[in-house]
Amino acid sequence: MARLTLDGVTKSFGAFRALDDVSLEVANGEFMAILGASGCGKTTLLRQIAGFDKLDAGRILIGDSVVSTVQRHVPPERRRIGIVFQSYALWPHMSVAENVAYGLTVAGVKDPERARRVAAALTLVELDGFADRRPGLLSGGQRQRVALARCLVTEPSLVLLDEPLANLDVNLRASMEDEFARFHARTATTMIYVTHDQAEAMVIADRIAVMNKGVIEQTGSPQEIYERPRSRFVASFMGGANCLPASVLGPGIVRCGDVQVRAADPEGFRPGDEVVLCIRPHAVRVHRARNGVPRGENLASGRLLQQAYLGDFHDLRIALSGGAEVRALTPAGLAYDGGEEVLVELPAHACRLLHT
Questions:
Q1: Whole-angstrom Cα distance, residue 189 to residue 83?
Q2: 3-state class of 152 per DSSP?
Q3: Angle (deg, nearest 10), helices 140-152 and 170-187
Q4: What is the number of other CB atoms lying within 10 angstroms of the CB of residue 21?
Q5: Helix (DSSP H) and strand (DSSP E) numbers for the chain
Q6: Measured in Å, how far apart are the chain's first and last C-alpha atoms?
């Protein structure tokens, strides 16, 4: 195990800056997810950590050892890093045991030490009894665990996982998420998990670093990032949010279109500031206008534009009287008519203000 320190890491490809002054501290034994959309720089960052590319500025430390600066570049094979790729990268003509042992064989590790470490790695990923099988006879989840065992058998101080579940079906991905979480709990290995899937990151990681356009916009626990996003991008990317333009009227009070709204976090804003009002779709409450005005706060009239049945709930798109649109998730038993007039309630505790 080892902690990881990124300090001002910068990388450009021609005129395109893929990483822009990225700093991050990953504690010893921590499970950190690097989350972002395609093209945000997360895989480039992983390659910098692994030593596949040289950085343009900044430095990278694994434990107390500096492995990357502009002047110094420790090659990948000397970083004691294990990597699990999206494609598994298993040799089809080799048995499971031979695939797992490959790195030890190249390193010149002799039997019986090699056999002992391979058996221990297969036990760790719960593949006892599969040593003699070929990868083609394994399920996708089993092949992923072979790739993980091959990574772990070299006893790395840091494990990098590059979207390892992207090729699996939905049910198998959920199962493997649990596998990774249990594995980390057993080994306490420092792990960096790159993904574009928000739910996956929230299930697996101790902390999440959300990347956008080559920078880390926010780092924190899954709950912290979901409940207290610091930017419009983070609010929208982490589970989706309604992000509405608003102007500050006073402490905790904003005008959003033609509606006056009380929000949860008034600090840091002054009257006249242009802000973004964010509220999650599941927090929006919808009332039938024909039933009269309900008791509530932050009420706005609206008209139903679209609804989609999603099993346990309806996903509604509603046009507010001031011109803005909001999404709301309502229980499946509460169906509405197309074009129906409704009243939308935006509970103050769920309304968060962000700088534009």
A1: 13
A2: helix
A3: 20
A4: 14
A5: 8, 20
A6: 40
- Confidence at residue 97, expressed as pLDDT on a 0 to 100 scale: 93
Extended strands (E) in 95-229: 158-162, 191-195, 207-212, 215-220
* Domains of the chain in sequence order: 4-233 (3.40.50.300), 241-355 (2.40.50.140)
pLDDT of 266: 65
Q: Check the CA dihedral 230-231-237-243 and report its sign.
A: positive
Q: How far apart are CA 194 and CA 60, in angstroms?
A: 17
| Residue located via tokens 């709930």 | 313
Pair of tokens at residue 101: 């042992």
Helix locations, 57-169, DSSP H: 96-106, 113-124, 140-152
Tokens of 3: 């902690």
DSSP 91: -
CA 232, distance to chain mean position in Å, is 16
> What are the phi and psi torsion angles at 300 (to 5°)?
-140, 140
Q: What pLDDT shows up at residue 125?
A: 80
Give me 315's structure tokens.
């996903």
| Structure tokens given for 317 | 């798109």
Which 3 state secondary structure label does DSSP give 298? coil
Chain Cα centroid distance, residue 193? 8
Mean pLDDT of successive 10-residue stretches along the chain, which has 356 residues: 92 96 96 94 95 96 95 92 82 92 86 89 86 90 85 86 78 74 81 91 93 97 92 90 93 88 82 93 89 77 90 91 88 81 92 89
Instruction: Give the largest Cα separation in the chain, rounded.
Output: 80
Phi, psi of 209 (to 5 degrees): -110, 115
Nearest residue to 319 via CA among 344, 346, 298: 344
Rounded Cα gap, residues 207 and 170, in angstroms:
23
Q: What is the pTM of this model?
A: 0.85
